[in-house]
């Protein structure tokens, strides 16, 4: 799948120390080094408090690490952000409720001053990609949770980023919707060749989707294992019933320390 | 039985029921007052009496009928309330924007804004009058001051209620401050802004009428105090009472209607099935 071997995201010895209100130091992350290849689907998996979201936010330039080095396609996170090298999807869809679905997707393009005509075309193309073309003129509150999240993905992809950052995007959805969105996301990934960094606490989900799983353990947040998922692509629902799948899930689960 | 149950659940049924109850109670008391008091129209006239006085073409005071007088004075009061309302909205919105843009302004202004709300209008009016030196201007100013507070606080609350993730998205798009406000903050706070508008619309009208009573000239409040003092038929007073009540309710509804028109996304909440 990802034969391309150039490194897209390089994290070296990342550490993050917070100061609490009563002036104590809390170590959220320590010594995390991860290389993510171009076009790779990588999951950051761990229980709450392991710093997986912190790590994603560091990549997104929403947080600055207190130690370590990070480069995104050879640039700093700030440069990467200003060049819109990544799109981000949160746990909730975070749609602009006063805008229609299409206009939601056009929002980042307006900020980038993309010409009106191209904005429209790109929005419609993205809607087609996530299978919501007929809902272009609906308002977000007319859509179900799963559809809203798909609009969120379409909007993140509309800026044509190289990287898609996803912070527990499906954790608020029911099991059936989640499985459908897994299949959709893999299809979109295959079509667009993005590098995806996917944060989740769901081991099954991470095994099903990823090329590589970075297992993070808490107190302090650290990388305790990297598990390569060599299940063939394209992934199908039936694979979840295979011994290989179950073994990989067990392998990931056994990699956690101190939970 | 079922039909009756469904009827009571409709929105309009309750409104109509309330109106009927109020009219019935009014009329019962009007009959009691008419039977026991010497000048019933000073206390509680029949509704029909008020209607009659509205329709009547009998002139009072220099060739105008009662309703013409009320309308002329109402126009003066309402236009003052209207100007004050608009001025108050603009000032309230701008202050909320400034408080949201620069935290120090919020720290300085916000705690003391409430003071404005605590001073009684009738206490504030002479001060404003002395400052402006003109009763008409101070009437506008008071309507503006009363409008200002609910608009400013509600709009600020709206700015603060914007989800953190919406800010983060804007940050990830590398949006500048102007874009953040025009594309996220201001549209997001519109429902809150309208809450402020709905609260302050009847307040601006009430304040205008009340401040009218302080000095003479043209205005509903002036006419009201004259009618109360017996300078003309007491029915003028009753007409003003009803007219201002209707205008107050109407001003609130107009703001609601405006919100309905400007925020189409709030109407549609039926969910599509996945």
Q: Share of helix among residues of chain A?
A: 25-40%
Major sheet strand order of chain A? 5-6-7-3-8-9
- Largest contact between chains: A-B, 34 and 27 residues
CATH class placement of the largest domain in chain B: Mainly Alpha
Strand order of the largest sheet of chain B: 1-2
| Radius of gyration computed on alpha carbons of chain B | 24 Å
Topology:
The complex is a heterodimer of chains A (259) and B (274).
Chain A: E1 7-19, E2 25-37, E3 41-45, H1 52-59, E4 67-72, H2 77-82, E5 86-89, H3 101-111, H4 116-129, H5 145-158, E6 163-167, H6 175-192, E7 195-200, H7 203-209, E8 212-217, E9 222-228, H8 243-254
Parallel strand pairs in A: 3-7, 3-8, 5-6, 6-7
Antiparallel strand pairs in A: 1-2, 1-4, 8-9
Chain B: H1 2-9, H2 11-36, H3 40-43, H4 47-55, E1 59-60, E2 64-65, H5 66-101, H6 103-118, H7 121-132, H8 135-160, H9 164-172, H10 177-212, H11 220-228, H12 234-262
Features:
heterodimer; A: 259 residues; alpha/beta; Rossmann fold; 2 domains; six-stranded mixed beta sheet; three-stranded antiparallel beta sheet; 8 helices; B: 274 residues; mainly alpha; MetI-like fold; two-stranded antiparallel sheet; globular
Explain how this protein is built:
The complex is a heterodimer of chains A (about 260) and B (about 270). In chain A, about 35% of the residues lie in helices and about 25% in strands. Chain A is built from eight helices and nine strands. In chain A, the strands form two sheets. Chain A has a six-stranded mixed sheet with strand order 5-6-7-3-8-9, with helices on both faces. In chain A, strands 2-1-4 form a three-stranded antiparallel sheet, covered by helices on one side. In chain A, helix 3 runs parallel beside helix 5. Chain A is globular, with a radius of gyration of 18 Å. With about 270 residues, chain B is an all-alpha fold. Chain B is built from twelve helices and two strands. In chain B, strand 1 and strand 2 form a beta hairpin. In chain B, helix 5 runs antiparallel to helix 6. Chain B starts with a helix and ends in a 12-residue tail after the last helix. At the A-B interface, strand 5 and helix 3 of A face helix 9 and helix 10 of B.
